[in-house]
Structures are given as C-alpha cells and as structure tokens.
Design a protein that fits this description.
Elements: H1 2-32, H2 38-46, H3 53-64, H4 69-72, H5 82-106, H6 110-118, H7 123-151, H8 155-161, H9 171-180, H10 184-213
Length: 214
C-alpha cells in the first residue's frame, strides 16, 4: 500500500495545483466576463460531474492518445503514467472547484471592486486585494472538494493510466484489487484511510461555508 500511497500523493499534488489555478481562473472568467458561448463552456467544464468516470477516461484517451495535439505536437506521452493519472484526477475534480469558486466570486459585491478602482487601484490589485480575499472561503472549499474527488478517482484513472503497481496504482485501485483477491483486511484499511481523508475534506468545507450562512 505504501507505493500506492506515494503515487496517490503525487497524483493529488499535481491535480490540486491544476484544479486550484485553472479552477480559479475559469471561475473568474465565468463569473465576471460575458461572452458568446459562455453557457456552453460552463456546461462542458461541468459535465464530468454527471458522466460515468469511465466515459471521462474514454474521452481523455482521445485527448492524450495517438494523433492528439498533446502527443504529436507537444511530444507528451501521458498514457499509462502517473502524470496521465493526474490529468484524469484533475478532469473529475475541476467541476467541483469551479462551481464553488464561481459562486463565491459572483457573490462579491461589484461596488466594492468599483470603489477600489476609484481609489486608483489597477485591475490586478482589485483582483488580489478585493475579489479573491472576499471569495477565498468558497475558493478554498472548492479546492478541498476537488482534491478529495481527485484522491478518490478510479474509473477515469484506470482508463488513462492503467493499474501498474508502483507506477500508476493509486489507493482506490488498491481497494479494488484487494477486494477482488479476497484480502479484505487491506481493502478495509485502505477504505478507512480514504474515508477519513474525505471526511476531513468535507468537514473543512463545512467550516468554510458556515460564516457565509449566518
């Protein structure tokens, strides 16, 4: 289980970084900018929430596989690597981050941002000193949820990265293999570990949401 834990930490670390940066930027775009196709973009980014993870993984095979710009133009072969698993984890975790961050940014009073502009603040300063600080609870809540979802990802990861011991096998795959092979003790231990992390993520999210509800 130790090797799977290390792989999972690498995958979740990269996925959390991607989810945090991409989710915040996309949330700002969707919450503050009006443009043609905005609703369609939001639907495309959110649809992994309702698709089976194996379907998400199947689409990623086309995005990352032979003939794709990622592989042929950039020269990146991510299939059956832990980096590919990180891409899959990011794809399923991003919608949770996006929904929470978008709602938090949209809830920031535009008059406060306008007041900062009248005081001579640049757009970057308004973003960093007004918008993001006021929306930080929703952004962090989304990041916790997205990271927890990335840690628990199984179907899309299996499609994109496989189940290679020491290379792409993550903790959810340990549970699957252990249960399949009758090692219920290992399956139970790993399940309890994942459940504890998920509980902590939800607890942290709940604490972040409470002040906004008062």
């Amino acid at each position: 289980m130790l090797s799977a834990l290390i792989v999972s930490l690498k995958v979740v670390g990269v996925a959390t970084l991607v989810i945090g940066v991409a989710g915040t930027l996309l949330a700002l775009l969707l919450a503050r900018v009006r443009f043609p196709g905005r609703t369609l973009l939001e639907l495309v980014l959110t649809v992994p929430l309702v698709l089976p993870p194996t379907v998400v993984g199947f689409f990623l095979l086309y995005v990352l596989g032979r003939g794709s710009p990622v592989r042929d133009w950039l020269g990146l072969d991510l299939l059956f690597t832990w980096q590919g698993a990180a891409v899959a984890a990011s794809a399923v975790g991003l919608p949770l981050m996006l929904q929470s961050a978008r709602a938090a940014i949209a809830a920031v009073d535009p008059q406060l941002e306008d007041a900062a502009r009248t005081l001579g603040r640049s757009e970057a300063e308004v973003l960093l000193r007004v918008t993001l600080p006021l929306a930080h609870r929703g952004i962090l809540a989304g990041l916790f949820l997205g990271a927890a979802r990335a840690l628990g990802e199984f179907g899309a990861t299996l499609m994109v990265a496989g189940n290679i011991p020491g290379r792409t096998r993550t903790l959810p795959m340990v549970v699957y293999d252990a249960a399949l092979n009758g090692d219920l003790a290992l399956a139970a231990q790993t399940s309890l570990l994942l459940s504890g992390i998920a509980f902590l993520a939800l607890f942290a999210t709940r604490r972040l949401e409470q002040p906004a509800q008062r």
